[in-house]
Amino acid sequence: MLNTGASDIWQIKGNDGKEYLLPSIPEVVISVDVKNERALVRPIKGIFDEGEEIRED
Predict the structure, then answer these.
(1) What residues contact 50, with CB distance under 8 A and at least 6 apart?
(2) Of all residues in the chain, what percent are helix, strand and coil, respectively (each to 5)?
(3) 29-39 burial by CB neighbour count: b if 16+ within 10 A, else e?
(4) 16 found inside a domain
(5) Is 47 inside a domain boundary?
(6) pLDDT of the chain, 57 residues: tens digit per residue
(7) 23: domain range?
(8) Does 57 reside within a domain?
(9) Could you tell me the pTM of the whole model?
(10) Vertex 23, ends 40 and 4: CA angle to 5°?
(11) C-alpha–C-alpha distance, residues 57 and 55, integer Å
């Protein structure tokens, strides 16, 4: 996680090893399940390649 001052930025890695930056804001982060280490997000257009699913296991 990075902190830019305006909001936290999550740095996540796709299954292909590609890294993505995702703002941790209410419009994007729908829910966080700390116990199961999962987050449900609504990506902003252009963050991920179209049709690509990003999962962190």
Answers:
(1) none
(2) 0, 40, 60
(3) beeeeeeeeeb
(4) yes
(5) no
(6) 776 667 789 888 877 888 888 888 999 999 999 999 888 888 788 777 665 555 655
(7) 2-41
(8) no
(9) 0.62
(10) 145
(11) 6
